[in-house]
Amino acid sequence: MNSRNNSQENITERNNTHTHINIPPTRIPAFFIDPNISCLRCEPHSKEPLRGKPVTYFSCANQEILNWIKSGGNVGVTSLTGFAVFIDGDTEEIQRAIERAFPDYYKWSTGRQGHFQYAFFIEDTPFSGPIPLTGGAYLKTRPGYVLISPSIHPNGRRYGEIIIGEKIPVVKHKDLIDVITPFFVRDNNQRAEAPKQQYTAPKIDVLNMADVVDLSKLKRSGNRYQGPHPIHGSETGLNFVVDINKNLWHCFRHGTGGGPLQWIAVQEGIIGCNEAVPGALRGARFWEAVAIAHDKYNLEFDKAAKLLEEVRK
Ligand SMILES: [Zn+2]
Q1: Does residue 170 sit in the same domain as residue 79?
Q2: Is residue 67 in some structural domain?
Q3: Which helix (H) or strand (E) covers residue 101, if one does?
Q4: What secondary structure does DSSP assign to 201-231, as a single string?
Q5: What is the pLDDT of residue 119?
Q6: What is the domain range of residue 226?
Q7: pTM of the full predicted structure?
Q8: Are residues 158 and 221 in the same domain?
Q9: Ligand 1 mean position to 276 CA, how many Å?
């Protein structure tokens, strides 16, 4: 592979120098057929597992999986042994770090522009579970999974329209950890990203997280409640955290969060969860959220005005 050694080029330029391999739409690449990789059926045009049945894992060569694909179903891959991992590389920073460290990477496009997923076999110590990374990225192994070609993204685009790499590389556990460590999502809602992305609660709390989010579906641990995201769900069941003391929430999938008003905005569809960053709730969107907070959660408008002063800072 010629140009992969040049780590200084940016990813977009490098892609143009690579071959785009087209996989026939009813096949899974042959090297996915491995004891350390398992497939599961997902709903057509969806990332959700097949409804109404417990998740069943198959070999990627299993006839039932191939029939499912032929009938238009989507297919996810995971590793039951932890000796294979898949990285949802949602940000360019993570993609660059991976490709610099492992020049023989194997990646495929998802339905979203600029998003790629990577597969690795692990040579020595298996991974024991998924690891959330900043910016919505993820290292996935059981019970996490990623979709592969020829699955269709909810937006209509096929996974693996672009596939780069000859086969899944074999790497050492520690080498992979070293690459993703800078992207770990820190505990206590702290993110390992630029400070501008961090949200701090307004000094005046005119609303309480406990009043605006259904905590009954989350698991309590001290002041923190964790569980599946109430709006967009969760593959791990743990991508959403509410901290009652700090009066904040955080989404690990999108690396976003905020206070009660931001949560109301997400819950009501005023902003997407992926948009819930500091400064997102301005102007008409702010007042729309305030109006709902007034109607549903008894937020008084004079308190809202004080909140606005804080938000503006
Ligand atoms: Zn989210």
Answers
A1: yes
A2: yes
A3: helix 92-101
A4: --SS--S-HHHHS-GGGSEEETTEEEES-TT
A5: 97
A6: 209-312
A7: 0.56
A8: no
A9: 8
